[in-house]
């Protein structure tokens, strides 16, 4: 029987690439989405056309009842959960001096509180020997202006990774984070000029943006047999962007 993986925010970008890669690895994949059912179903259809197994389940990870539903529905349909990848997140930028609490609260609610709730359900439901993977960001290493709410949330995510890894001692479940560098997704590219994008390319010695598949490959490693001895780590998948 195939192992089961939940990927949040899987209708586009890194989440989409991750869902497709885990399906290729043999997982039955839950393609979670917040609002765009058509895009999520498109990912499911691509996976099935490739011979894989997938189901789309709606849940907004900033809402406790939605997160609970995501896990209970997955267990009802598949019987168990082996891997959880919490990719869903938002990125709204605002300088601290602007005192934009709406942006701050919204970012914390999705990126940090959402991770906390996903972790809570994963800790209860992931099978022995399973993997829990959260998404941070290599932006933490640069402290870019206007990224205050986003970086605050992602710094909190990294803290939760280490705590949950310790709390799950004895269950053979690893908890790790992935911190992508600039990656060619709608989330990053929206509103940026070609000059902005070129500057981002040049931040890494490899002088390109990451591709969603680059990040999905790292998730595949942590979720697969080769990642079994990696625990409580933040893997910075960024082409050397911060060094």
Topology pattern, helix = H, strand = E: EHEHEHEHEHEHHHE
The 3D shape can be described as globular
For the largest beta sheet, what order do the strands appear in spatially? Answer: 3-2-1-4-5-6-7
The biggest sheet amounts to: 7 strands, parallel
**Overall number of strands:** 7
How far do the termini sit from each other? 43 Å
Q: Name the quaternary structure.
A: single chain
3D architecture notes:
Helix 4 (101-125) runs parallel beside helix 5. The chain has helices spanning 13-24, 37-49, 64-78, 101-125, 148-167, 186-189, 194-201, 212-223; strands at 4-8, 28-33, 53-58, 81-86, 126-135, 174-178, 234-235. The model has no long low-confidence stretch (mean pLDDT 96). The chain has 243 residues and is of the alpha/beta class. It is globular. A 7-stranded parallel beta sheet has the order 3-2-1-4-5-6-7, sandwiched between helices.
Question: What does this entry show, briefly?
Answer:
Strands 3-2-1-4-5-6-7 form a 7-stranded parallel sheet, with helices on both faces. It contains 8 helices and 7 strands, in the order βαβαβαβαβαβαααβ.
Based on the model shown, name its key terms.
243 residues; alpha/beta; 7-stranded parallel sheet; 45% helix; 16% strand; globular
SSE order and pairing:
Layout: E1 4-8, H1 13-24, E2 28-33, H2 37-49, E3 53-58, H3 64-78, E4 81-86, H4 101-125, E5 126-135, H5 148-167, E6 174-178, H6 186-189, H7 194-201, H8 212-223, E7 234-235
Parallel strand pairs: 1-2, 1-4, 2-3, 4-5, 5-6, 6-7
Helix pairs in contact: 1-2, 1-8, 3-4, 4-5
